[in-house]
């Protein structure tokens, strides 16, 4: 199984000085939104926003509420500017010398009021806002508290490096801190309020059965989409067998939940230095009866708007000639960066340019003698989800680690010398490792078990075995014990 020899550019391990400075700026702005910035200087200034706005392409968050005077409104219209109002860039009140302590920093996180009270001033570029992130950003700041947005962010981190998560937004927005912040906050709102990702993950398969969500379950039992193995770069592979799809088999909500379920499960399969996935659309025997634009649009939105920098490569395999007109429509929806990751393949040899022949499943002409088969859950496998006392204890432990990480982040941002910064970075890396380990202690209390848990791909301690059936054939159980 081949894996990359080194980390890709723009990752925590490979940042240039300029990129690290951008990351510090985004952390400063994010901590302001979360109400956890303490005495950090705002990273995104009103001046920068105003300068960008002079071109008429962007809307800065105003440092004062807009005047309701009609003449002011008229003048604003002439300048093609629209004040967001109330989203202040203000310095927190001075604190005592011990305010930098971990305990005081967290008790200061606002749990009431809106995040607009702590947010920095940013520029919202309406000319480059395909998914309405600016509108969602404003709505998030107006309707959610700093504590809620902070909780949504740390919930998304899971077992990831927190720097790595923020860097996804920076890379997706070409290192523009304003745009990265807007995208990140909009994503937190989408996860917490629109999709309720945590609930989808917790519900899992047993929950779907209890709710009689037949549309969701049909995706699993048919094997319409499944995760199996890795490509040449060590990226987890998601196979989608398009011929099995019929729009009438499920409603959009069920399919969207299944998409989120799959993407969140795939995230748990990423192991450094791999941080993207491979998607294979198997178009064998495709007909127009299988075409359904709504889930395609939703998947594109997920990758482009809310799971940035998560797609490594997409292979469209054995697309018939009739797909060409459909592709011309779909391509028009794609960001050029995403479109560049899509490749068309016809034969197993074409696939072998991306996936080792030994790891291409047999139904696609490879040597991997494996067929998807859904394994039903056992009635009690999600019992831990009901243990709220155990979860509360682990959440309290994680909160302390998060507080320590935020504390070190503030110190790192304010560090004047390289030696001091490097020392703090080393400490932060250690805390990041604690967060990763701590997540796996919590996982069974947060996430419904999946077919990948039952088949030995995902281990309870965070271990992963992409080909557990090979160990069985060799006389070894997925947990490493001999038969």
UniProtKB/TrEMBL annotation:
Pfam family name, one: CRAL_TRIO
Stretches with biased composition (Polar residues): 102-115
The keyword Cell cycle appears for this protein: no
InterPro entries: CRAL-TRIO_dom, CRAL-TRIO_dom_sf, CRAL/TRIO_N_dom, CRAL/TRIO_N_dom_sf, PITP/CRAL-TRIO
Residue intervals of the CRAL-TRIO domain: 227-372
Sorted UniProt keywords: Coiled coil
Coiled coil: 384-411
Domain of life: Eukaryota
Segments for region (Disordered): 51-121
Entry keyword Lipoprotein: no
Protein name: CRAL/TRIO domain-containing protein
Species this chain originates from: Ascodesmis nigricans
